[in-house]
Amino acid sequence: MPILGLISKCRRVASHLRKSVSRELRVRHVTVDRASQNNSRSSALGITILLVIPSLLALIPAASAEGGGSLTSFSNGDSIIEMEVSPSFNSTAVLDSPRNVTYQTASLELDYSSDDPSPGKVWLDVNMDGIEEWAWNGTGMGSIGEQTTFSDGSSNDSIAVSGGSNSSKGINLPTTSLMFSSQLSSSFIPTFGGGMHSIGQLLDLEVGDIDNDGKMELIFLSDEPDGNSSNNKSIGWMDWDANTSSMTNVSWAETCPLGASLQVGDVNNDSIADIGVVDSDSSGLCLHLSNNTVGYNSSFVNVTVGEALSAIDFADMNDDGYMDVVSVHATGDVSVRFFQNATATFADNATDVVMANGTPMPALLENLAVGQIWGPGNGWQLFAADSLSHVTVWVWNVSTTSWMQYPNSLDGAKGVIELVDVNSDGYLDVVGTDDMGHIVSLFNGTHWNTTSGTSMLLVNSTIADADHDGVLDIVFPNTGAIDGSDSTFTGQLDVHPITSSGIGNAIVNTSFAPVTAPTHIRIADLDGDGRVEHIVAGGEANPGVFIAGWHEYSLDIDQDGIGDINVTGYAGDGNSGQAPLNWSDDMNRVKTAIDALQNSAPSVQDLWSNDYFTVVINASAQGQGEVILHSLKLTYDATFSVDLNPYASGNLSNVLNQLMEAGTGSFNIPLPFASTSTGVLTLKNLAAVYTDGAPQLQLPPTPNLNLVYYDSDMVHFEWHDGMSLNNFVHFQVFRVDNGTILDTAVHELETTFLNMTIDVTVVPGNVYDYYVRSIHDYGVASNMSPVLTVAIPYPGLLSPSTTIIQDRPDDDGGWFDISWGNVSGETLDHYELYLSSNEFTNISNMTPVAMFNSSVLSAEMNQSSEGAVVDGIPYWAAVVPVDVFDRSVTTVVAAGPTMARNDSQLAPQVSLSLSDGITQSDGTSAMTIARGSALQILVSLSAGGTPLANSQLDLELSSTDHGWNKSFSGQTDGAGEWLAVDESDYSDVIGSTHISGAITVVATYVGFAGDDANQPISGGLASAELFSVVDASFSADELNTRVNDQGKFTVSASISTSSSADLPAIISAISVEHIASNSTSSLEETGTTSFDVDGELSITSDALPEGGTMDLSLVGTPDWLRLDSDMASIVVQPPFPEEIEDNGSENQSTVDDFVVPTLSCGDITLPLKDPGSYNSTTCTITNPNKFSISIDWGSSDTWLGSEQISVSVQPSSLDVNAESSLDFQLRFTWSADVTDLNAGDLTFTMLGDVHHQTQTDSFSNQVNYTLIESTGGEVIPPTGGNGGDDNTSLDDNVSASEDSKLLTYAMYAGGGIIGLGLVIVAGSMLFGGRTDYDDEDEDEDDWEDSFSTFDEDAPSASKALSRINRPDSVKFQERRNKPEPEPEPEPEPEPEYYEPEYDDWQGDSAEDDGVTVDEDGTEWWEDDDGTWWYRTPEMEDWAIYEE
């Protein structure tokens, strides 16, 4: 063999080995990196070459090698041919090849022009055996000259973006291509699918974190929620639901009916926004507190801030962590009400007055703004803008607990005043407007530098970077001309950039028109994707809120890091009315970018050594979502080289050699091209070099495979030796997954000169099919060996280590700390964590809640198999190691039980309820209490809206003024309530100690340290105030004072109370001021007197010698003293007249001094409810004088001061003997239930005239009585009555036993009279008695005269009316007892003996009161002085008879 042929042989072997290694690197469908194996194989191949070189030198070609040539034209003699290809037939180019030659090289070029139709995918199969000698038909390669697919063969590409860039799948293009045109469309679909929500006309909208998720939610105020105008005014809220990637439905809760706008702040520091609805008409707001729950209800707290409210907001002015209510007023007041968390109430207004700039007059404040101008953590400030656009800054001085004005101020804002960091220096600046223009005032830490601009109407504006250009904007709605139709779009959002130099012009090259007729705008990142959403209230026919993000995305095609395509605008998913943000290439912008990329793009080869490059498009967006690339069409010109192939033949020359024929002359070799579309291709540059003499080709023997060894890491098998084979090049080893059809172009495992192989790339659990064939010169290959199937076994399972589960310390609950030990083993892939509230020992049917790589040995978990971890529920956990074959043990030992808990201290809610049995107080204002009143104090305890049962509480009542306190301890019941004090009499609480004024009531909860299941609760308290008062009675003798013969008089008064403990304090606190005066003269005396230790006082004066009035007034009455009266007016009677001589008679008559009679009544208890009959009680009047008196009571209608109950005296006139007593009745009558008097102890004054010794004095006396509530419908019967049939007369005050005595006396008297009559008759007869009947009349008169002598012994209180001495006009009709209008029984008086009265002879003279009735029904009665009294049937009272 010539040395040249030997060298050529070596070159071919080396070339083939190189190509084999190259193919192995390009086409590798295995799961394990083979880099190290390739290195070993390359070394083995090099050694093999050295070993076989001696054998190669012995090889001699079978044919002679004389001459040669080349083919450069096709059989038709043309070097360039154009052919049409079609799916329906193969287009064939023909080579006119000489016989008995050996082709050394063979290639041609295939050319396509974009002027022609694309043939689609194209391939060459010379032998028509299904093995392509050349092809452009790989996945993602597209059609020749027209690329419409991406690298995976799909027609579109979805690129996920989230605050950055991501790459497309790529677009493959031939390296030799020349771009002609481009088409591509893109759409950005945000995760937040925006659009219009028709929820009704909105009065206001705000944003706030209502669920403590760190993201803003929407808050609305509407007077037609859900578009229904009949619904009441309500607040509403919507939240972003990450599970559905959409907004939740709006929820509504009724609010105060006059609310007009919203303010939002975290008042109670629970990390959840509280909603304030501003009611300017009522000068306050309705506060909907969250109370650690998500959502709101219709209950709210009314917070009033004072009259003439101008603006209101929330700010933590005292830096206690709780937001307070701040406000400014047209009166000049700047005000704060501090939130008191313990009671969930607000303290009273703390105000200061802002003076108008440079004047002493209060400013007319119009607006406010609040913020932390020195940055977070440096306190809150309030900016107050007045009507002159002067803005003052106020802070709360915690040490002095007062407002303090910052020394510097600014001007130019009142209509709008916003605090925002314009220049990013950490200080808040001021953006504002007034009637003249606008300002941007930059704060440098001490003062403001202001830039002014033109006037702007910034109504309902907001400040944010609306278009994400890095510059703040002020955005306000321009509503436009409303016509009631949504289809005729009107209005827009005006967006102006804000810089240090002021507010710029509106952005005009971008359209901000989200909804027709916009009215309100807020900007916030609702879904947390880093891209803000525009929240715009608007709409006409179907009003509501538009919600969508303002997005921008870019496409970087030329890979220079700068977007070649940039798209901005509102983006949605199309489901809520907002379309995606779309773009289409209609100006070959993609072609331009590819042209710039192509020269520098790396080139790779496919299986047929076609060079191509890949265009990767980087899509970027700041928000979350996806960029869809679609409608791709790139057209180009290209040239391809037909030579190499991935099969045994290896190249086109080997294919031609395998088709070589013996003999002389030439024969045709067809080159059939197939395609998927009809098109035109051009073949050119044919170059086939040959030498004379054909190769001797024969079929090599088929290898038989023998399995030597296998385990989970390797497979070793062998076959026959190949070095003795003719023209041997190498063995090809193939491996496919069991059942997969072998493709020799892609399934080659390796090439080797050895007759064995060890596959270390096996995966346990997989089943492989192995094949081997030998490759020889000119691409000759043996038949494929029979298949060798090997199932790779698994290694042993990994054993779990110990799992530890603990509650995560110092958290807000719902989390576990879980750890586990390291598991050693080469097959360890990852760990799987199982966590469940059900104890488990087998995980076969469980799903892990988390997986961790092999280097992680601990984790924090808040999710279990049942969902989110719930505090206070036991959980079990197990961590299982999983090997690389996805295998693990199924039987486990779970750690547990362990419970998660919220370690943060839950704030308790302690509340107080105070009651005196009639009124009830919640502690917000002091409740007045006095001895005799009931006292109940109820303490309620809850946390997070849940009552705390069986919790220890302490209650203390204390009086700072008296150094007194009293403590109570107890536990709450199942409802979280403790009745700490339940006394029917407040005296039982304070005892015998005098307590008056403010009493502080403090309920204290010490807190709960928590346990394994329950969250700790901080301590808390609630406070209230009682105001302890003392009831006292002040009285004086107002009618029974007279000047004595020495010109002096004495008045007495007293003060009394129910408890002796209170009397000293009363006496020491008050005094009595007296004024003596006489209306007929200028006499007057004043002075001040104190009560003695018994509450009595006596004043003796000579200031009124002729009588007058002494007025007493209590002075110095403290606020804790409650008096029934604080003054009295005493009538001072003039002295009695001196003795008067009677016509010079030696006998002189004197007038005795008059002593005021005394009156006493028993206990009087009357019901407020009409009992259905009268009620009466007995009173006694005592005459201490040595002479008789008579009393006329006059009218008693107004004594009680009530329209429903009245009192009368029975009888209305009394005659009381000297130094004696007389009982009478007080009768109480109802006309209806009493409503104009209150139940309790009351008094009334009886007024009358006392007649004595020809004089008349006024008389009064106070009577105590008690009004009570009727119980159970019981009617209190009249006291001591006989069913109302009481006919007791004035003088009928003798008991029944005494009546019996009188009857006995009358019998004795009757017997004496009869005896006397018999004596007289006997005497008359003895002295010769007369027989003349005329004389009998005279005797009869004498008989009557003898009886009349008994009148001298009759009682002085009554004198009978006899026929002899009654007025002539009285005609005797009958004698009867003196009747009463409504008789009533009397209690029995003490027996008193007096002589019976004998008048005209009657059998019942013992019951006679001296009243007679004449023919007209007129009653007649003669008193002791001989004066006649009468009363007709029409008269109620008696009158003196005058002739």
The unreliable regions are 1-65, 1144-1149, 1271-1366, 1368-1384, 1387-1407
Q: Tell me the fraction of residues in β-strands, as a range.
A: 35-45%
Average pLDDT for all residues: 83
Biggest sheet descriptor: 14 strands, antiparallel
Outline type: elongated
Cα Rg:
61 Å
Name the structural class.
Answer: mainly beta
What is the helix fraction of residues, given as a range? under 10%
The total of beta strands comes to 100
Amino-to-carboxy terminus distance: 191 Å
> How many H/I helical runs?
8
Plain-language structure description:
The chain is mainly beta and about 1450 residues long. The protein has eight helices and 100 strands. Strands 1, 2, 4, 7, 8, 10, 11, 41, 42, 43, 44, 45, 48 and 50 form a 14-stranded antiparallel β-sheet that branches. A hairpin with a 3-residue loop joins β29 (about 380-385) and β30 (about 390-395).
Key structural traits:
disordered N terminus, 8 helices, 14-stranded antiparallel β-sheet, elongated, 8-stranded mixed β-sheet, single chain, 41% strand, 100 strands, mainly beta, 1443 residues
In short:
The protein has 1443 residues and is mainly β. Strands 1, 2, 4, 7, 8, 10, 11, 41, 42, 43, 44, 45, 48 and 50 form a 14-stranded antiparallel beta sheet that branches. Helix 1 (3-26) packs antiparallel against helix 2 (35-57).
